[in-house]
Amino acid sequence: TAGILSNKDFVLSLVELDGTTVQYASDSLKDDKDIINTAFTQIANQRGMIMPVATNRMTNKDLVLAVVQNHGSILEYAPEDLKGDEDVVLAAVRQFPPSLKHVSKTAGMWSNKAHMRYHKRN
To answer: DSSP secondary structure string, 2-48?
Structure first.
């Protein structure tokens, strides 16, 4: 079974049906942007919310950035250093403005500007 769980097309078809099946994918596919985005999308569509599936693997900036562009609320589950990353935070806030509450307390001055812009609009 390990071989088939390393097959991207097979795993993608599984997570399209049930996003939680991403937990059975090979380690390399758990880091695949397409697989993770599909899993989060399927879970959001099925349950009406995002569940923290595979968020323990979200240590790679490119992966987190790809996910928050479609699911900004996932910023809550990102590692603390990425919650302070300007690119990641701005992508998350553009997609889901309330994710701003999850910005790292140690983020730089740019986050203060983002907070002010958000509060001016709301």
So the answer is: TTGGG-HHHHHHHHHH-GGGGGGS-HHHHT-HHHHHHHHHHHHHHHS
> 57 vs 25, 32, 42, 79, CA distance in Å?
12, 10, 18, 10
Q: pTM score, two decimals?
A: 0.61
Grouping H, G, I as helix, E, B as strand and the rest as coil, residue 66 is helix
Cα–Cα distance measured from residue 112 to residue 6, given in angstroms and rounded to the nearest whole number:
43
**pLDDT confidence of residue 102:** 87
Cα separation of 69 and 122, whole Å?
A: 21
Residues of the chain where predicted confidence (pLDDT) is lower than 50: none
